[in-house]
Amino acid sequence: MVICFLLGFAIGFFVFCNFISSFMQGFLHSFLVNNSFLASSGGPPSYPVLGCLISFYKNRRRLLDWYTDLLSESPRQTIVVRRLGARRTVVTANPANVEHILRTNFNNFPKGKPFTEILGDLLGCGIFNVDGELWSTQRKLASHEFSTKSLREFVMKTLQEEVDDRLVPLLESAMETDEVLDLQDVFRRFAFDSVCKVSLGYDPCCLDLSKPAPPLVKAFDTASEISAMRGMAPMFVVWKLKRALNVGSEKKLKEAIELVHGCVVEIIRNKKKALEETKAKSGAFAGVVGGEDLLSRLLSAGHEEEVVRDMVISFIMAGRDTTSSAMTWMFWLLSKHQNAEQMMVREVESMLNNGRNGFDFETLKEMNCVKACICESMRLYPPVAWDSKHALNDDVLPDGTFVGKGDRVTYFPYGMGRMEALWGKDWFEFKPDRWFREPGGENGLLKPISPFMFPVFQAGPRVCLGKEMAFIQMKYVVASIVKQFEIRAVNGDQPVFVPLLTGHMAGGLNVTVKRRELK
Ligand code: HEM
Ligand SMILES: *[C@@H]1O[C@H](CO)[C@@H](O)[C@H](O)[C@H]1NC(C)=O
């Protein structure tokens, strides 16, 4: 009887919460832009509460652009946002503020529990999702591994395999059959293969369309999608309750996470065995043994199974959808700006004609036009559109904005790439030229741009660990494609940028593939 009652109550409460949650979504998500404060620091004109609700409804499908508009109207590119039921949030596109948060006063701005909770079940204590000591020890270890020459060589080797033996043949066959391809899907498969090979020494063969996607890939997709949904939920209590009761999306999440952890642990155990066997064979004086992937390196260094598991899952999470997002938007932009594409083609051609033997590391490093195009697309469509920290203590940002203990502080690469104050009147144009020291300086040097003005990889002590690897990967792919193919978007309209954990193109990018004849 009592149990029935309790159960009934729990279910009733659950239904009620879900109901309230969908009903209140609009209201709770309404942003009450607080102006009593902004009046003193300079900001958007006052919005009466009702006016703000209305503009929220008008803008709910374009929140990124709405924020961007508010920020560009604010003289200091900073706004304070109040949302019923959520903590006070400072959103900034001001480079001085960004430098303060990400570098000068780094210790006061950890990710914080409200963020780490969301991905905590999937990422555990992995580098991507922890703060303080736990983070800094992993960071030291990982930055050492990421900066070794041998890892870079391994990355080049996996790229050659993945691009030359899989991506290029796939595009060739689409060309021969006049098939329309979803390039976003192709790049996501490519990125998953690449990051798994580098992090785990395991090949999920996602780009091989004749094989079904392995369970790890599907489970990873499900787990990151549902985790991202937690972050969007208007009330934490809803997903926490669902998790406690193990129902609905939270049940699916739990299963997906178990599968991810299971697969990775299995890979780790096999790797350990292989490492031990090699060690036994090669004797005690063999020095470093085993594979060149990150997992082998971490295991050879003697780290615990669970620590290693969480670390490599963090690498996969961080490295999978980011490069694919950047390249998808880039090929859409290039489709519309063929002069920029021509500039890259000339660069690649001249390198190949000057006796370069394919794209080795040195050649990639010199590809300034390709780099300028990649940066220019990421300025307009940054893979990570926004990112938040939570203040440990009261603080004042360089522009005078007060930050209270516990407040959320969001730096906003998407908005920053679209500030007239930062990029000039032509900010909305796709102009790779702006990345060169001299205009029209195609063969010249790139301009140094402050990472706090262009924080697409974040900046400061916690800057993306995979930044160099990401550039190598993107340059290799882009150069290999433009060298032999003309990719043209079939999508007519402006695609929609969906900022989940990483920015997607809604509905994918349909393209046709034609042969390009090099001179
Ligand atoms: C265009 C591609 C990429 C972009 C735009 C990008 C961007 C970022 C950003 C914004 C962060 C900070 C996120 C946060 O703290 O919440 C980050 C962190 C990180 N990224 Fe990347 N990333 C890219 C590619 C990669 C790749 C290929 C890897 C390789 C595995 C990688 C590994 C990491 C790691 C390990 C971190 C965590 C660093 C730390 O917390 O100390 N990233 N990245
Ligand atoms: C791409 O093509 C597929 C099928 O050809 C179609 O279902 C889809 O809607 C298209 N996507 C976009 C964004 O146009």
From TrEMBL:
Pfam families: p450. Its cofactor is heme. It comes from the Eukaryota. InterPro entries: Cyt_P450, Cyt_P450_E_grp-I, Cyt_P450_sf. Keywords: Heme, Iron, Metal-binding, Monooxygenase, Oxidoreductase. Belongs to the cytochrome P450 family. This is Cytochrome P450. It comes from Hibiscus sabdariffa (roselle). The lineage of its organism: Eukaryota, Viridiplantae, Streptophyta, Embryophyta, Tracheophyta.
